[in-house]
Design a protein that fits this description.
33% of the residues lie in helices and 22% in strands. It is an alpha/beta fold and 749 residues long. The protein folds into 5 domains: 103 residues, PriA, 3(prime) DNA-binding domain (GIY-YIG endonuclease, 3-Layer(aba) Sandwich), CATH 3.40.1440.60; 57 residues, no CATH class; 188 residues, P-loop containing nucleotide triphosphate hydrolases (Rossmann fold, 3-Layer(aba) Sandwich), CATH 3.40.50.300; 184 residues, 3-Layer(aba) Sandwich (Rossmann fold); 100 residues, Alpha-Beta Plaits. The strands form 7 sheets. The protein has a 7-stranded parallel sheet with strand order 11-12-10-13-14-9-15, sandwiched between helices. Strands 16-26-25-17-24-23 form a 6-stranded parallel sheet, with helices on both faces. A 5-stranded antiparallel sheet has the order 2-1-4-3-5, covered by helices on one side. A hairpin with a 4-residue loop joins strand 19 and strand 20. The two termini are 33 Å apart. Bound molecules: adenosine-5'-diphosphate (ADP) and zinc ion (ZN) (2 copies).
Length: 749
């Protein structure tokens, strides 16, 4: 047996592995990430390396392959653990090893610490004086100048000293070598979640209610008796899941272990973070995408140094190198933002479950609307299901009304709001309560077309309809940013009747202002949240009571807790139902159920309106009844019938190139291999019967950012079949010269 080993972690070498022979008897002690000693280079000097993967075939002449010398004993260092995870990610999601390693840890040269050095005079007075005398006699002017300056000041900043005394670093080094000065370096790591003691004066701890106590007890009892599991906490909106996380983590931290808490970036508000700070003070840190690389690196160092116990952040916080990870919590585990859009296209939830297994940690997935994957596993007993069926302080769930917009039109109402919704908004304005109006905008929404001939304005680079932006009268492509002036007439038929068929947030705001001139409105979308703290600012204004109505895309209804909101409305619920994705129904249900959860969280009861042209769609009706289980059963029927995940597993392979011709030739070669059952893709046993293959065919978006795209979907009952087929494709494309310039990306759906 052979092992592929990575030596040295400089970013240039991350993709380079070296093959070594595994001496007999050593296999059982080797695993990805484990640290070994190997002979390396000309002089065969001993170097440390990390095992990445194993193979049975030698890549070069076996006579030239050297043996692994030995295994480093003792606790595996954090780097080794991270490399083990990177190796697993490479295997599951594809991409190069280097990209995977860079995803899980900061690589040596990518982050250079700004070091602050200070020169301090040695406390040995006689020595210093003697040295100064000798240097004066030798007429060593630079050394005398520097030493006298340091003596006079006691301590001196390194850079200032060099500039003001006009000396080189060599002079500093000489004084240091002679022992008359010390060079002290203090690298400071800022805590972005710095805790202000004065914050907590008026705080009192909320006690757990009985249902919460049961959840906490279950996990903590397991934990303290050494049982490590994956728990799915299914708790309705407002059931107090956060308090459960805090109590559980408290017990874990008290046992000397650490915790990682993942929350969607959008919910990473001060509101959430301060709940953790109230309990864990300075031992909590946060990470977010607005931080610089250096700041994020600092947080990893603080974790590795044992300065913190709890790390809160979006998916990248998962890779915090804690010494003794005890628990991972993933709040709103159904959120799409846990999936990376860049290679490797990993899902933080799946990586977390794997990681928890490796590090002997527990993991709690929490949601009011669990992903079908997680609920399926919980029902099958793979995860342990915990539930909170009621809201924490006994509030009732909001009343939800489905508004049939076809009937509104028939009744002569041409507004974008139903008559009942308008009355409800009016009532809130009079009562001084707040309203949220949102559109579940995804992908193709807001496009401009000609009402006379049907011509749709598309981006020349992306083949995607563009969105109209009223503030600068431009058509903008949201994928690549391409802009053009809004034309006055249709370029095809010359008709002046060109307009957006579906409303955007701006139009909704205008309608609201016209219908309710007394209302103070706030809008939250890409245009109003561009700054560094963009959406935090809008949310803070709304939560501070500075507006009556908040209008926005789905991001306004995710995870926030505004007690004065008693009315929530989905203006066009259908917009997310027809996106051509097998998860569209699930996402629509989740969004509507979560949105309903924003209403009536305080002392006053809430209401929700769902406006639609398809009032019978079950994603709508179950959301209106707050019936997750009902939705789950119905949707699983569909998934089962179609062999979609979570019943089967699915792999997506994308093939990209700027040259359509070249791509087409490569795809033709692949199609041939796929169609012939005896072809290359099916050698070595596994027949096509194990997997279902769709494509390769043109992607739904054929051209994006000037690249052409083909896609292939592979479904398999067993995950091994999918992984096996992935390896075959990797082998096929690496051996077919037609693919030498084609980018191949894998994705799990
Ligand atoms: P979830 O995340 O489950 O939607 P949160 O954790 O945001 O719910 O809690 C909802 C609200 O209920 C918060 O304002 C929280 O302070 C409050 N809450 C939580 N637990 C309790 C409790 N045991 N008693 C009273 N209020 C509680
Ligand atoms: Zn036209
Ligand atoms: Zn574009």
């Amino acid at each position: 047996m052979y092992a592929d080993i990575i030596i040295g972690l400089s970013s240039r070498q991350l993709d380079k592995t070296f093959q070594y022979r595994v001496p007999a008897g050593m296999e059982k002690d080797l695993y990805p990430g484990c640290v070994v000693n190997v002979p390396f280079g000309r002089g065969a000097r001993q170097e440390k390396g990390y095992v990445v993967s194993f193979s049975h075939e030698p890549a070069i002449d076996p006579a030239l392959i050297k043996d692994i010398s030995g295994i480093e004993l003792g606790k595996m260092p954090a780097q080794g653990r991270m490399i083990g995870i990177a190796a697993w990610m490479r295997d599951r999601y594809g991409g190069t090893l280097g990209r995977c390693i860079k995803t899980v840890m900061p690589v040596n040269e990518s982050v250079r610490k700004k070091e602050k050095k200070t020169l301090v005079v040695s406390p040995e007075k006689e020595k210093v004086e003697g040295y100064l005398e000798r240097m004066k006699k030798k007429n060593a002017k630079a050394r005398v100048r520097l030493l006298e300056a340091v003596i006079a000041a006691g301590s001196l900043d390194y850079d200032t000293a060099r500039k003001e005394c006009g000396i080189t670093s060599k002079t500093v080094a000489e004084l240091e070598m002679s022992g008359v000065i010390n060079v002290e370096s203090n690298i400071s790591f800022r805590n972005p979640a710095a805790y202000k003691k004065s914050d907590d004066k008026h705080l009192h701890r909320i006690g757990l209610n009985a249902a919460q106590q049961k959840v906490v007890d279950t996990v903590v009892t397991d934990f303290s008796s050494g049982i490590r599991l994956t728990y799915l906490l299914h708790g309705v909106t407002g059931s107090g899941k956060t308090l459960c996380y805090i109590e559980i983590i408290d017990a874990v931290v008290k046992s000397g272990k650490q915790a990682i808490v993942l929350i969607p970036e959008i919910a990473l508000t001060m509101q959430t973070v301060s709940r953790f700070r109230e309990r864990f003070g300075d031992r909590v840190s946060i990470m977010n995408s607005r931080m610089s690389k250096g700041e994020r690196h600092d947080q990893f160092i603080r974790a590795a140094n044992g300065d913190i116990d709890v790390m809160i952040g979006p998916r990248s916080a998962l890779f915090t190198p804690f010494d003794e990870l005890g628990i991972i919590v993933i709040d709103e585990e159904h959120e799409e933002s846990y999936k990376s859009e860049n290679v490797p296209k990993y899902h933080a939830r799946d990586v977390a479950v794997y990681m928890a297994g490796k590090e002997n940690a527990s993991i709690v997935l929490g949601s009011a609307t669990p992903s079908l994957e997680s609920y399926y596993r919980a029902i099958n007993g793979e995860y342990r299901l915990l539930s909170l069926k009621d809201r924490a302080a006994g509030q009732s769930m909001p009343e939800v009304y489905i508004e049939d917009m076809r009937q509104e039109l028939r009744a002569g109402n041409k507004q974008i709001f139903s008559r009942k919704l308008m009355t409800a908004i009016k009532k809130r304005l009079q009562a001084g309560e707040q309203t949220m109006l949102f559109i579940n905008k995804r992908g193709f929404a807001g496009f401009i077309s000609c009402r006379s001939c049907g011509h749709v304005f598309k981006c020349p680079h992306c083949d995607i309809s563009k969105t109209y932006h009223k503030n600068n009268n431009k058509l903008i492509c949201h994928y690549c940013g391409h802009e053009e002036e809004m034309p006055g007439v249709c370029p095809v038929c010359g008709s002046p009747y060109i307009a957006s068929l579906r409303a955007g947030t701006q139009q909704i705001e205008e309608k609201v202002k016209k219908l309710f001139p007394e209302a103070v409105t706030l809008r939250m979308d890409r245009d109003t949240t561009s700054g560094k703290e963009g959406h935090t600012k809008v949310l803070a204004e709304f939560s501070g009571g500075n507006a009556d109505i908040l209008i926005g895309t789905q991001m306004i209804v995710k995870g926030h807790d505004f007690p004065n909101v008693t009315l929530v409305a989905a203006i066009m619920a259908d917009m997310s139902l027809n996106t051509g994705d097998y998860k569209a129904t699930e996402r629509t249900f989740q969004l509507l159920a979560q949105a309903a959860g924003r209403a009536g969280r305080g002392s006053k009861p809430g209401e929700m309106f769902i406006q639609t042209y398809m009032p019978e769609a079950y994603s709508l009706t179950y959301a209106a009844k707050h019936d997750y289980e009902g939705f789950y059963r119905e949707e699983m029927g569909f998934r089962r019938m179609m062999c979609y995940p979570p019943v089967w597993n699915m792999l997506i392979v994308q093939f990209l190139n700027r040259d359509a011709e070249m791509l087409k030739k490569a795809i033709d070669s692949l199609s041939l291999a796929v169609q012939s059952p005896k072809g290359v893709l099916f050698d070595g046993g596994s027949q096509a019967g194990d997997v279902q293959i769709l494509g390769p065919s043109k992607d739904g978006i054929y051209k994006l950012d000037d690249e052409y795209r083909f896609v292939m979907y592979i479904k398999g009952e067993k995950d091994e079949d999918i992984s096996g087929f992935k390896k075959k494709i990797e082998k096929f494309v690496s051996s077919d010269p037609l693919f030498s310039q084609i980018i191949v990306q894998f994705d799990r759906a």
